[in-house]
Write a structure and sequence with these properties.
about 15% strand, 8 helices, globular, Spore Coat Polysaccharide Biosynthesis Protein SpsA, Chain A
């Protein structure tokens, strides 16, 4: 099945990614997709470079965080008639060539969300995690698997497709804190009856900059996210209908 690119918007949250954002936008545009860069209060040329490469750009007045930038992008998609969103990072780590594979998987399975997993068999990622962080990721993925009724190996992946009713729900209710926009969104979607699936997707090494969350901080925030899910105090989404529309 060939994805309908006219219904798909690639949403790229970006904070001070001037070194990579133009290449990411150009790659997405070359693949035939519309792209929106949500400039999350950058102090460099991220906005101008993204626009020059062919992206629509929304400039947030100051840094609100990835989750808030994504929710902004989801609102933009819904208001402009897109039925499908692809989350993609601005640092070049997410493989643009796998966007079509995510959409095809959603079409073939009827899924509202398809996650590109770094840790699935055949993903081909060379990512090395600190043992403590690997244990944390395993814990999150195990609980996400239970919530969705399918095997999830990478609940915190930010490379994913979201569509239909779930897109409309998350445009209003996507959590904006660390892991809320990834792991908690998976938990909430699964518990509300939305169909979540996963396919392998490699993650490239960053060529510029570094992750904003160190191992210790990430582990603490992971524990908080797990507790939120375990205690069922996350936001409840409206139950899924029988279709993906």
């Amino acid at each position: 099945m060939i994805p309908n690119n006219d219904e798909t918007l690639v949403v790229v949250p970006a904070l001070n990614e001037a070194a990579t954002v133009a290449n990411v936008v150009a790659s997405v545009r070359s693949a035939g997709f519309d792209v929106l860069v949500v400039n999350d209060g950058s102090t460099d040329d991220t906005s101008a470079l993204a626009a020059g490469a062919g992206a629509a750009v929304v400039d947030l007045p100051f840094n609100l965080g990835v989750g808030a930038a994504l929710r902004c992008g989801f609102k933009y998609a819904v208001r402009n008639g897109y039925s499908t969103v692809v989350q993609c990072d601005a640092d070049g780590q997410h493989p643009v060539k796998h966007i079509s594979a995510l959409i095809t998987a959603a079409d073939e399975t009827g899924a509202h969300m398809v996650i590109g997993s770094r840790f699935a068999a055949d993903a081909g990622s060379s990512m090395v995690l600190h043992p403590l962080r690997r244990l944390a990721m395993w814990t999150l993925s195990s609980s996400a698997s239970r919530a969705t009724g399918t095997k999830i190996t990478d609940a915190s992946s930010g490379f994913r497709v979201i569509r239909g009713d779930l897109l409309r729900q998350l445009s209003l209710h996507l959590p904006t804190y660390y892991l809320g926009d990834t792991y908690e969104a998976v938990i909430a979607a699964g518990r509300a009856g939305y169909r979540v699936r996963e396919i392998p997707a490699p993650l490239s090494e960053r060529t510029h900059g570094k992750s904003s969350a160190g191992t210790l901080r990430a582990t603490k925030l992971t524990a908080r996210a797990f507790a939120t899910a375990a205690l069922h105090i996350h936001h409840r989404l409206h139950p899924a209908s029988t279709s993906t529309g």
